[in-house]
Write a structure and sequence with these properties.
Blueprint (H helix, E strand, L loop, with lengths): L3 H11 L13 H22 L7 H11 L6 H8 L3 H13 L3 E5 L7 E5 L1 H25 L1 H18 L11
Helix pairs in contact: 2-6, 4-5, 6-7
């Protein structure tokens, strides 16, 4: 038996009508994306002002992935980032050239190399954490520290509920 109310609601959604009381809520995903973009732009403005190499978001995702995993290869990185092995190799070569990343022999696969952060890479990660903290604190200055703390908890709750067990810290191309 077909539920006519559900069919009608699906038709309303297809026609662009919102559920009652949700007109402003549908903007949340785009607002979150715009806030993320604004924060990333502020972060990169800081890098540029401090004469850091021209790191891109893919580099930041690479730092986090390599720092949080053992025995990461270029193939693993490409899979994580959702790019080809060649694109991952380019990212690795850039970071290696800037002194942030090093390659070492894989302990069990003679053909593979393991990626490791150098001390400069770990120092950069600490620097990035500090800058991200400062950028978040700016947001707290706008909305208040208690609201920012509550927002952080709410965002984590959403991730725990709908993204549990996934490593979602990767770029969306």
């Amino acid at each position: 038996m077909v539920d006519d109310m559900k069919v009608n609601r699906v038709d309303q959604i297809r026609q662009g009508e919102s559920a009652p009381g949700t007109e402003n809520l549908r903007e949340i995903p785009m607002l979150l994306h715009r806030v993320t973009r604004a924060m990333v732009d502020r972060f990169h403005d800081r890098l540029e002002a401090e004469d850091c190499p021209p790191l891109r978001p893919a580099h930041g995702y690479t730092f986090r992935f390599v720092a949080g995993q053992d025995l990461v290869t270029t193939v693993d990185l490409g899979t994580h980032l959702g790019v080809t092995k060649q694109a991952a190799a380019k990212i690795v070569a850039e970071l290696e050239g800037w002194g942030y990343l090093a390659r070492a022999a894989h302990p069990t696969d003679g053909r593979a190399q393991v990626l490791r952060l150098t001390q400069q890479g770990w120092d950069y990660l600490a620097y990035a954490d500090r800058v991200w903290g400062e950028i978040a604190a700016e947001w707290g200055g706008v909305i208040g520290g208690e609201r920012l703390t509550a927002l952080r908890a709410d965002l984590q709750s959403y991730l725990d509920t709908f993204a549990s067990g996934r490593n979602n810290l990767r770029p969306v191309w």
